[in-house]
Automatic annotation (TrEMBL):
NCBIfam families: purR_Bsub. Homodimer. It comes from the Bacteria. The lineage of its organism: Bacteria, Bacillati, Bacillota, Bacilli, Bacillales. This is Pur operon repressor. It comes from Paenibacillus lentus. GO terms for biological process: negative regulation of DNA-templated transcription; negative regulation of purine nucleobase metabolic process. It holds the Pfam family PuR_N.
Length: 285
């Protein structure tokens, strides 16, 4: 790469870091890339670090030593998170989203990359300090959210199938109960898709009682894997806490009212802020 002026180098370095979250980048990489001395690169990184932190864009961690370098950790400020979640709740509260049977139409929102990227950054903020090997979700609606979160955490995504595909090779299948009618379903995961003893972050677009997520938890047990966390875009507020199959999860929005006859939907912020507060308190202590 040709040698750049410092102003141009700062812009290019910022772009480079933003596109590689949670990736350790040696100083020699920048020095060789821009034809600059390490001392100049260190000064540039100090400027970028200050801007990231002051603007609530994230943190820039520096690791000393021969194997050291810098690592960009995406973080979303509480102010930005509040604005985004409020907008998400407003979009979800549109009356024309009510489907027959009292279901909520969300596919258009799940198909918006910009919206999913913002949601992924919020989940990456909560789970940034946890030891995670991969992201898991069930096909198909949760896929955009899982990939957005995986991109921000620099982690691969594992897809659980509802039907076994011959192209997946040998697989593990389990039955699980999901839905208001307590229907019995099957989910399957290729043996090659997940290493044993992995630490997995489970993502889902919607949670009612948590049957599908509990199914993934049970499936992980077959691989001797651990649940590192659970992230949900929208949870149902109709289910009492004690009726849920799991208690440890993070939600961005809570669906509190779906009145098909009166064409009314009410959506409130989920438990994101209370969980974020608990995580901050534990880190500070």
């Amino acid at each position: 790469m040709k040698k750049l002026k410092r102003s141009a180098r700062l812009v290019e370095m910022t772009r480079f870091l933003l596109s590689r979250p949670h990736h350790l980048i040696p100083l020699t990489t920048f020095a060789q890339r821009y034809g600059a001395a390490k001392s100049s690169i260190s000064e540039d990184l100090a400027i970028i670090k200050e801007v990231f932190e002051n603007e609530g864009m994230g943190e820039l961690h520096t690791l000393a030593g021969a194997a050291g370098g810098v690592k960009y950790i995406p973080k979303v400020s509480k102010e930005h998170a509040l604005v985004f979640i409020s907008q998400l709740c407003e979009k979800l509260s549109q009356p024309d989203r009510i489907l027959p049977g009292g279901y909520l139409y969300m596919s258009d929102l799940l198909g918006q990359p910009a919206l999913m990227n913002e949601a992924g950054k919020l989940f990456a903020t909560i789970f940034a300090d946890r030891e995670i090997d991969c992201i898991m979700t069930v096909e198909t609606k949760g896929i955009p959210l899982a990939y957005a979160t995986g991109a921000e955490l620099n982690l691969p995504v594992v897809l659980v199938r509802r039907d076994h595909q011959v192209t997946e090779g040998s697989a593990v299948s389990i039955n699980y109960v999901s839905g208001s009618h307590k229907s019995l379903h099957t989910m399957t995961l290729s043996r090659r898709a997940l290493k044993e003893k992995s630490r997995v972050l489970i993502m889902d677009d919607f949670m009612k009682a948590g049957g599908t997520i509990q199914g993934m938890v049970d499936l992980l047990a077959e691989f001797d894997a651990k649940v590192a966390g659970v992230g949900v875009l929208v949870e149902s507020g109709e289910i009492e806490s004690e009726q849920r199959l799991l208690q440890d999860y993070v939600s961005l929005a809570t669906l509190t009212v779906v009145d098909a006859k009166g064409k009314e939907i009410k959506v409130e912020p989920g438990n994101y802020f209370s969980i974020e507060k608990l995580v901050s308190s534990s880190v500070d202590s």
